[in-house]
Design goal:
Layout: H1 3-26, H2 35-43, H3 53-62, H4 83-95, H5 101-113, H6 117-121, E1 128-131, E2 134-137, E3 144-145, H7 151-162, H8 186-197, H9 201-221
Antiparallel strand pairs: 1-2, 2-3
Helix pairs in contact: 4-5, 5-9
Amino acid sequence: MDNATRTAKQEITEAGKFLIWLSENHHVTVDALTQAHVDEYFSTGTTTRMAARNFLQWRAKTGIGKRYHLKYREARQTPLASSHERFTLIRTVLESEAVVLNNRIAALMLLLYALPVRRIAEMRTEQVEVTPTGISLHLGEHPAPVPEPLLPLFHEYLTSRANQRTTNNQSPWLFPGTRAGHHITEQTLLNTLRQVFGIKILAIRNAALHDLTKELDAAMNHPGKSRDFLV
């Protein structure tokens, strides 16, 4: 197989991966593609994604699709905030009493559990289990307990949400959007977390993943040892 053939095959493969990513992560087809989607896809993931650029350029040249600004990816280190920055932000969120509760709870879900913002926006009320002994979030195979110091804030949000006299108070979404029956959009939540709390999303999520990995390792090495969550 010559180089031109290998290149063509890779471009076709990567174009297919791009379409799958667009469908699975944003639930849209290429006809609804936006510049934000393009920026996100080509600035994250592996460098092989760049092979999908020719697909978008071909669509633009043939008039099938719009023309997008396609930046060349620059090599860079993965952003990683420190554990101190993460815990400082947790304290900031807890003390930001003037900020509406839904924004504070959403921020804590990123800071505590390293959830992608899209998953936070799409969380359902049924994923929150309230018992006499605490609150657990069903985020994966095993429930994730809400740390005891944060329980009052979570209880307050769940209570206030249930008592809201709006068209969305019976919404199945934990974070209802402004449109009845819809959850808050990922972009709206991203903007809020950045502007209200100054959170650098990727760096903080990486920090949370890093800290959670260390906690998991410690739990596996000392299965009988309990650990307190400090804020």
